[in-house]
Amino acid sequence: MKKCFSRLKFFIRYYSLVLQSRLDLLLKRYPFVKDRSIPISKNDLYFQETPTKLTRILLSNLTIQFNGAACSVASTVTVLNSLREFLYKKSCFETPITQRELLERVKTIHWKERMGENGYKGRRGLPVRELGLVVNASLNEYDLAHQEVKTIPLLKKMPNLDQLKKELLEDLICFENNSESLIIAHFNQAVFIGDLHVPHISPVGAFDIKQNQVLMLDVDPEVNSPYWVSFDTFFNGLTWEYNRLMQKYGYNGGGYIKILL
Length: 261
What we know:
Blueprint: H1 2-28, E1 38-39, H2 45-48, H3 53-60, H4 71-87, H5 99-105, H6 111-114, H7 128-141, E2 148-154, H8 161-178, E3 181-188, H9 189-193, E4 199-208, E5 213-216, E6 227-230, H10 231-238, H11 244-247, E7 254-260
Antiparallel strand pairs: 1-6, 2-7, 3-4, 3-7, 4-5, 5-6
């Protein structure tokens, strides 16, 4: 009986999201198409020139989330293992950090419980501010050298949004040119690849300055490969204002986490 009730709750929640996603499209007149992203295999211009060492390392350490809520865990593990390799020698570590291990070691804001089926006090997944807290705690837990972890929330109604957009572009250029930072994006996945309008988290793998495109290392197991999105699409995904169903769980908008090395 309990299993049937849980399944019923899942279907109610899922179809509520479907209806809300369709309503979002009608109200905001945003086209529901799946070609806003370009798979990495169909746009290799960036890779015809030498990609940065950090991009190669991030690609080799890309981790896929272990359940529907664990995009924050997979993204953080991707970054932690990449930093181990980038800052030190990977051979110094016998085995890579795993998602389960990370959740056992980092207790901040009940991260492990939030990844479970029922969440923590009904809250599943992580809004952007909480994401910044667990990323910072994870870096400290594994003693990985960094200067600062900055959390940048983004909402379309912010009065200084144009300035924040310029700063995001500068952060991407700095990430690409200097390899002195890492970026984890908190975004509406539907803006990039279609499907449901739900919050999602994944690391940025590269920024093609010539084509003004961002390479997303999407940790979703249903996404076949990393993909490129234009900078404007990227910004739109990060600034999406969610419907009331998502706001009830603390998701008002997105943003990004910048790790300064």
